[in-house]
Amino acid sequence: MFDYYTIFASGLINTVPLDFSGNAGKLLKLAQKAKEGNYKFIAFPELSLCGFNCGDLAATREFAAANLKALLSFKEQLPDSLTVGVGAALKANDGNSYDCYVVLDNKNILDVFAVRDFQENTDARRRAYSENCGNAEITIGSESFKLKDSSSCGSNIVSCQGINVGIYFNSADLASVVGADVIVAPSAVRYELDAQEPYEKSLLDLSAKLNCMVLTANLMGCESGSDIFDGCFYLCNQGKLMARSELLPFERTKLANKDLGIVERLPEFDTIVRAVSLGLFDWMTKTYSHGYALSLSGGADSGLCATCVCYGQLAALKSLGYEGYYDLMTSLGFEVPKLEGDLESFIKNKMMPQVLTTVYQGSEVSGSVTRTAALKLAKNIGAQHYEWSIASLVRDYVNIINGTTPDDPLNWERDDLTLQNIQARVRSPGIWMIANRYNKLLMTTCNSSEDAVGYCTMDGDTSGGVAPIGDIAKSRILKINAYIAKEGLKIDSSLHLEVNDMSYISAQAPTAELKPGQTDERDLMPYVLLDRIHNLHQLEKQTPAEIVKSLIPEYPQYDEQALRDFVVKYFTRLARNQWKRERGATTFHIEKADLNAKNGFVFPLLNDGYKSLLADLVK
Questions:
Q1: Which value, to the nearest 10 degrees, does the dihedral of the CA atoms of residues 384, 385, 390, 391 take?
Q2: pLDDT surpasses 60 at 152
Q3: What are the tens digits of pLDDT across the range 270-293?
Q4: Which pTM was predicted?
Q5: What's the order of all strands across the beta sheet hosting 97-105?
């Protein structure tokens, strides 16, 4: 077989939805780089010209016109003697918009292909794009291109410089690429825990089955808010992995080819932190924020959020290089001094005081343990840290309410929730003032376990613009923090982030610290149990009664009635708190069992509290 490695490359980019000129500029930069490297074909990702998630705007006329204009301009600016595949959203003569892939050679359009099948009913593109049919034609300039019929599986192969190149979006295209010498898989693969190995295997199987070379072209980074594209490049040949880039790169553009070799994966916890950190970094750059603000309680969730900020800065510096990091950070108003000493010290001592502002907001029920933990962690990662007390503010509110009923004052026995929530809500205005004053992005600290059962205070600890760990289970967060305290975090094979003082946090039992003697698991149930119930329901589709049967042999330390009570509590609170999930800040997709109310677990706001579906357990 001819060695195609030397002439095929992929161009990976971090897109911004609707930024046609900006995205095109990144693509053209990579095309020129490919030309200079003597490559003959460069493949770009799916919808890379317009951005992947443009929502319902993708079905509008103005969006279609802008896409077409951008494509024509892009075509004319391409280097000569270079074949290019680029993703764009195009409107056909049937009035529908399509997720298309355009192949151009020497500034001429060779063919246009469209996604045949989105394969998942929950795919958000179904709202904006159609699955193609044989009657649809795309007109670009003076030329028209007939889309392949999804029922007859017309050929997705185009001849480029004498090479048969197949365009493969997903398994629906399998029959249409038989006979290709090289298969280009334009994609937008988002990061999801445990999803990388199955995807890699599917590519290896494809190259083995069709006895050809397969290369991918993926998007990078957090494009539009929630999904974080993993940016990994794969090159397979006849069932063998020839090259694989790192997961979750921080670069804005990347030319990928066989020379990258096979990059080893980071361990699971390091990868999860890297995904969250990349999401946060992109939120900062794309909202033009001057870093982040965080109410640092000294607990597990806020501690992990703070650590992710530091990781993101160090990973960005390593990936972009000093000049690239300098240009990006100064464009956001940061002062980036001359790089002296090691990278970790530079980030912690010079950049983190500017990037992250943390505040410990103590109350009358706060203890010295959490205060010390917050202070130690903030100092360890270099954040600008403050402390203040909300005790007098809470007393003022309590006195106001007691003034309405002077003969019946608030008390913990009857008004437990009221007295807890006022503390959480009083913490919100101060940290918002910090965020507003310094143009910082305010992070919330909710996790998916608390999200499932509504163990959070609306307009209190849920206040903020982004919830970075909102799709990570609390039992996993506790393990991640223990790992960070003991092992630190890998940026790559040669760079490590040390956060030894995470030990002050990982040694504690989780507590919201809103009433004396409170612990989270005493209020709810053991987090490992809560998360197991969640996964059995979301991933294995088990009923509440089936879940109890599954838990009995797994948790012999609890009798059957206790397990029934835990399951009833979980589903009752799950049903009751959908309104909180719908009001919550945007979170990053990390785990498959996603409770995201927008595109994950859709549940009716008004319901019977799961009573009918729990009838077999409570009779």
A1: -160
A2: no
A3: 999 999 999 999 999 999 999 999
A4: 0.95
A5: 108-114, 97-105, 83-91, 41-43, 8-13, 253-256
